[in-house]
Amino acid sequence: MRCRGWFLWIICVAPLVEAAGVGDDFSNNLISDLAPLLSLFGEQFAQQFMSESMGWLDHIVFAMAPLGILTTIVAAIRVGGPAWLRAAIGRARENRSSVELQLMSSTSHEVCELWNGQGIVRTMGTPQIQEIIYLPKYCNNTETFGLYTLESATAQGLFQARSIYTPRTEKQPPQRKSAPNISLNLHGGSNLRDLLFVAVFGIVLQSGVLVFSGFSVYHPQFCLQFLKDGKLIRPYAYPVMACGTILLTVGLMICSAIVEYSTQEKEFITKRENVTEPAECMLNGQILWLQRSHVVNDQAFNASVIFRAPRGPENSLNRILTSQRAEPGPVWPRGFLIPRSICGRTSEAFTVLGVLLALCGFVLQFQGLRGLHWTSSIAQLISIIIMTALRAWVRRHLILAPIPKQVPTQHELDWLALWF
Questions:
Q1: If both were cysteines, with which of 66, 92, 148, 286 could 87 make a disulfide (CB 3.0 to 4.6 Å apart)?
Q2: For residues 65 and 248, is the Cβ–Cβ distance under 8 A?
C-alpha cells in the first residue's frame, strides 16, 4: 500500500513539475521573442515615414532598430516589384494610383490633396484647386499684381527648379498637369540637421546592441553573468544575430529607397540676380491654395482658401516643393546575372534584393536572439522604442495645421480679390 501511495504521488506531481518547467521555458521564450515580433508591426507609422522620405538620411533613420518590417517589404514590392512578386502578395492587378495614395508623397492627375474642413486629406480623383503665390514685392505689376502660379513665376525667372536631396536626371519626359502638393509646402520637409543627428544616433544605438550582445558571449568575466538555462551561450547565437541585424538593416534601407525613388521631388527656390546673393534668397510672400466647392471620389469638399501658417517673424517664402511620379528605371541588361523574365528593370532587381536581404536578416536575427540571453532581446526592444520616438520627433512637422478660410461658393476669386 505504501509503495502504491508513493507511485500515485509521483504520477500526480510529475506533470506539475513538467508544467512548471514548460512555463519557465515559455516565459523565457516570450521575452526573447518580444523584440523581433514587435518589430513586425507598425503599419501606418512605417507608411507615413516612408512617404515623407527624400534622401538616404531618411532611409538610415528608418532602418536602424526598425519598426514595421513586413509593411516595408510589402510597400517595396507594391512600388517597384516585378509582376510575379506582386502576385505573390495578392497585388498583381493593383492600380498605380492606390499605391501612390498610400505610399508616396506625390500628387498627380489621379491623386490629390484637399481640405475637408478638418485637415488635409489625400484622395483619388481630379480636384478643382489652384496653387497661388503672392509676392508683395511685385504687387505694383499691372499684369499680375503680385499673384503668380508656380509655372508663371518660374517662366518669369522668379524661381528656379532643382532636384531635392537625391540626385536625379534633369531630363524628364513631359507629364500631365498634377494637383498641387499642399502637405509638403505646409511644413517644408524634415530638417537635415535633425535627420543627421538621428541617423548618427541610430547607428550608435544599433551598434551598441551588437556590442553588448557580443560582450555577453565572448568576454571572459562578463559572459558568466549572462547564462542561458544555466549554461554558457552557444557559439552560433551571436554571429547569427549580428549577421541577421546587418542584413535586415541593409535590406530595409534598399526597400525604403525603392519607395522614395518612385517619386521625383523638386524644390523651386528664388533665382539669384547676381552671384553674390545666397543660394536661397528670402522673399516675403505667401503661398495659398484656392479650392472650389466640388465633389471628388464621392466626397464633398467646400469652397475654401488654405493659407500656410507663418514661419518666424517674417513670413519668408524661400522655397516651394513639388513631388510627382518618377518614370520607371532603366531596363535590366539582357543576360546579366538575372534573366529579364524575373526582373525586367533595374528597380525590380533592387526590390528583389532588398526583400530577400530583409527576410533573411529578420529570420537570422530572430533565431540569434532566441539563442542569446534575454537581456539582448530587451536591449533591442529598448532600441526600437527609442528610435520610434526619434522618428516621430523627426516628422513632428506633420502635425502643423494650415490656416483655412471658408469662402462663398462660386465666388472664390471675388473673395480672394477683396482679401488682397
A1: 92
A2: no
